[in-house]
């Protein structure tokens, strides 16, 4: 068969077809050898989307955008010249089962969520009510809590356009009738809840404010209704403390103050259509302490939101920068309203709290306390050795036995009263087992690290569950036992556990410590079956029932 030579036209067509196929092959599959050197094989692989719920940003298209990096969820993937819409989103939301509905929560879970979850703050923010008649020169709005199974409603208030004179904050607000439809079911300023130690909005309003039309002349006197008049555009926080000496009581007051500011950033002012406070506004906060307690304990936590100094009322009066016309005055939730007080005499099964975790993180960051630690390091045990009331009279005998029995454990015996607050917390964040007689020192359960244990020695017959419940919210282990009061000439019927010393059986103490220490034997990278070298689980026989189950 004779092969004819290819014509010029045939050759041209063949070359065109080869070029065409090569061009489109490279459009969709560029060999890595032809890519710039900055592009690696790893960068060509799509990284997985971040775990967790993703925002439903487009109600018309429930698909979301996932980026090529884990740290962001906003970058869209594009394909050059491919005809693919760069706005097409690539990952659907997590299945609905990942987001339990209210119907999935039992009564205990609902009880916990309305106190220790975001629902607590959201409910307060939603329950804002204006209490002034329209003709008032001031605005006075209050926000209220509403917790599952709790009839009491706690209140916080914000007054806007206020005059300060003669040690009082004057609010020109003619109060609305409590029977008006939107106010029914909410506490009225004339009938707010009362709290112990003469604290809370009701006492502050009675002793340190004037509210009503009688305040109107002061607005004229100081020209506070004139926008041109210089005014303090910050946020004055009026605090009346329970005493300022007890760590637990003080922290409850401080946390209630934090909750107040959080709620005001969430709640919408019906008059402006905007939140009562913005994040930027928090830098304008200044705390004014109204009580006469002669201490400034924990002031470093009161000024978390703002660098402005915490002032007593006397200091505020004498401050040359004080102006009579004030834009905002806040009366916060009192410490006694704090949900962490609730159920402290009953065991609760609340096993986590976003609120508690957030507060812990805030305080550690504010005090510049690092939580970084060597997870290979030996176990640290801190024994709180009280020197005032409720001493453990045989503490030296017990701690000596503990140190001898556990040479691999770093045991520190400390009196927290000798340390500053920052020093105390810095010690606790590196503690694996915190031990002590029932008292304010157990408040440090807030700051214990993950996988740690809390040990509480309670006076005989004391059934307090507050620190047990706090440990549950933190997800840390809890152990307890009861110790009898130390011998005394006075009859037991006349003795109060608050002030009485206790004595603890050595064998019972060592069994309690064994349980707590072994519970952290696998903290971090540790992998110890038994940490003690001096005795086994048979050390000491206890003839009475212990709270801790071994």
Automatic annotation (TrEMBL):
Could you tell me the keywords of this UniProt record? Endoplasmic reticulum, Glycoprotein, Glycosyltransferase, Membrane, Signal, Transferase, Transmembrane, Transmembrane helix
Start and end residues of each Glycosyltransferase 61 catalytic domain: 247-455
Q: Which Pfam families did the record assign?
A: Glyco_transf_61 (PF04577)
Tell me yes or no: is Magnesium among this UniProt entry's keywords.
no
Which reaction does this enzyme catalyse, per its entry?
L-seryl-[protein] + UDP-N-acetyl-alpha-D-glucosamine = 3-O-(N-acetyl-beta-D-glucosaminyl)-L-seryl-[protein] + UDP + H(+); L-threonyl-[protein] + UDP-N-acetyl-alpha-D-glucosamine = 3-O-(N-acetyl-beta-D-glucosaminyl)-L-threonyl-[protein] + UDP + H(+)
Keyword Zinc in annotation: no
Give TM regions: 7-25
- Can you tell which superkingdom this protein's organism belongs to? Eukaryota
Q: What GO cellular component entries does it have? A: endoplasmic reticulum lumen
Any idea of its EC number?
Answer: 2.4.1.255
Q: Please name the GO terms that the record assigns under molecular function.
A: protein O-acetylglucosaminyltransferase activity
Question: PANTHER family this protein is in?
Answer: EGF DOMAIN-SPECIFIC O-LINKED N-ACETYLGLUCOSAMINE TRANSFERASE (PTHR20961:SF148), GLYCOSYLTRANSFERASE (PTHR20961)
- Name the chain's protein: EGF domain-specific O-linked N-acetylglucosamine transferase
Which species is listed as the source? Orbilia oligospora (Nematode-trapping fungus)
């Amino acid at each position: 068969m004779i092969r004819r030579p290819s014509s010029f036209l045939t050759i041209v067509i063949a070359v065109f077809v080869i070029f065409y196929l090569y061009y489109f092959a490279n459009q969709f599959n560029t060999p890595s050898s032809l890519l710039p050197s900055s592009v690696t094989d790893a960068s060509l692989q799509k990284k997985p989307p971040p775990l967790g719920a993703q925002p439903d940003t487009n109600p018309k298209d429930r698909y979301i955008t996932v980026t090529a990096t884990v740290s962001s969820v906003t970058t869209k993937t594009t394909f050059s010249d491919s005809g693919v819409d760069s706005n097409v989103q690539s990952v659907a939301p997590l299945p609905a089962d990942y987001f339990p509905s209210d119907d999935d929560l039992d009564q205990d879970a609902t009880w916990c969520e309305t106190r220790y979850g975001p629902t607590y703050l959201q409910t307060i923010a939603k329950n804002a009510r204006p209490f002034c008649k329209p003709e008032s020169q001031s605005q006075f709005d209050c926000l209220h809590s509403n917790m599952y199974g709790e009839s009491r409603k706690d209140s916080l208030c914000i007054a806007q356009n206020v005059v300060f004179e003669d040690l009082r904050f004057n609010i020109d607000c003619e109060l609305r009738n409590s029977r008006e439809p939107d106010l029914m079911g909410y506490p009225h300023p004339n009938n707010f809840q009362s709290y112990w130690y003469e604290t809370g909005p009701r006492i502050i309003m009675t002793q340190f404010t004037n509210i009503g039309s009688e305040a109107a002349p002061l607005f004229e006197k100081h020209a506070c209704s004139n926008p041109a008049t210089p005014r303090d555009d910050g946020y004055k926080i009026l605090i009346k403390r329970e005493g300022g000496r007890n760590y637990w009581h003080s922290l409850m007051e401080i946390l209630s103050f934090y909750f107040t500011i959080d709620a005001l950033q969430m709640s919408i002012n019906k008059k402006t259509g905007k939140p009562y406070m913005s994040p930027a506004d928090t830098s304008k906060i200044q705390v004014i302490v109204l009580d006469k307690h002669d201490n400034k304990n924990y002031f470093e936590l009161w000024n978390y939101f703002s660098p402005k100094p915490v002032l007593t009322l006397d200091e505020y009066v004498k401050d040359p920068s004080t102006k009579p016309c004030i834009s905002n005055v806040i009366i916060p939730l009192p410490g006694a309203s704090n949900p962490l007080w609730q159920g402290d005499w009953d065991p609760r099964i609340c096993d986590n709290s976003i609120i508690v975790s957030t507060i812990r993180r805030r305080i550690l960051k504010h005090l510049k306390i690092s939580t970084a630690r060597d997870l290979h390091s030996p176990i640290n045990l801190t024994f709180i050795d009280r020197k005032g009331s409720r001493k453990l009279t045989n503490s030296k005998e017990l701690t000596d036995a503990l140190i001898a029995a556990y040479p691999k454990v770093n045991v520190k015996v400390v009196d927290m009263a000798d340390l500053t607050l920052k020093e105390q917390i810095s010690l606790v964040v590196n503690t694996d087992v915190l031990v002590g007689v029932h008292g304010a020192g157990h408040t440090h359960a807030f700051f214990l690290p993950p996988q740690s244990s809390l040990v509480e020695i309670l006076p005989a017959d004391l059934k307090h569950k507050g620190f047990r419940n706090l440990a549950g919210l933190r997800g840390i282990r809890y152990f307890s036992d009861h110790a009898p009061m130390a011998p005394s000439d006075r009859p037991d019927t006349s003795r109060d556990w608050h002030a009485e010393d206790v004595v603890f059986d050595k064998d019972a103490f060592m069994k309690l410590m064994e349980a707590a220490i072994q519970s952290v034997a696998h903290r971090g990278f540790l992998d110890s079956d038994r940490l003690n070298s001096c005795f086994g689980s048979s050390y000491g026989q206890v003839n009475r029932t212990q709270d801790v189950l071994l």
